[in-house]
Amino acid sequence: MARELGSTAMFVAGGTDLYPKLKRRQFEVEALIGLDFLDRRVTNETIGAGATLADVASHAGVPRGYGQAAGLVSSPPLRNAGTAGGNLCVDTRCNYYDMTYEWRKAIGFCIKKDGDICLVAPSSPRCWAVSSSDTAPMAIALDGIVSLTGPDGERELPVAALYRDDGIDYMAKQPSEVVTSLTLPADPRTRTAYVKLRRRGSIDFPIAGAAVAVQLDGDEVVGCRIVLSAVASHPLEATAAEEFLKGKRVQADTIREAADIAAKPAKPLDNADLSHFWRKRMVRVVVEQALAEATTRTAGSTVKLLGRNPD
Questions:
Q1: Rounded to two decimals, what is the model's pTM?
Q2: Integer CA distances (angstroms), 102 to 13, 96, 106, 107, 142, in order
């Protein structure tokens, strides 16, 4: 059906992101292809794309950080409807794009829909809408693998290869392909955490976030992945900070230095909630808190950051 209908159709699973955008005329399609048939099972290593975020968050066998990320998406009613596959594929966001049709028409539209310039960076030829998935950064940090099914058959792809650094053409999968499952390799040495910054404690999309997966041998870091959310058009991996941590012992000053390094590639723009200057400074804070939580097993996935002095 997707191949036959082409750009006139879209897939829908939970619809928590799609339906509001249809109401705002951000997407204009003639048909919706339902994905209710997708696998909803959740095991220790494999998550069906049709599983609700609520089921993922409450499953004891899911890696702790991934469960945190799923449990911090939006609000309880939306987590009961939104799916694991849908959150991996969630549309990029921007203050100039995620508005009503009338509002967007009044400012002349933007390059992502109906316009020809990016209103965030008018001199840029590309769209700078930000990746706003909570689960995608954590899946990348865990070396996750997605299974895709399309008209030409099935294939597997690292989650890290699923995204492009482009606010419009943000997914590397074919338009007619469906994410059917996510596999998260198990490693007993891996400790994980996801810290999300948003204005309110519920409902809001991230305005900065950090997903970390750390492999420890005692208190020595033997491997590390740090992936940032909501600071680029794709989940942004802090590779320099990862290399810095390898071989070092877990100490407060080491974590702080790694967080400083991780924040450097983050370049938030004025296209999300709150000041982009402040969001840039807070990237270091969320990375530091995620690393501390992962390496010390501290409890609590909701971290209140508003009002904290990042210095």
A1: 0.94
A2: 27, 12, 6, 9, 41
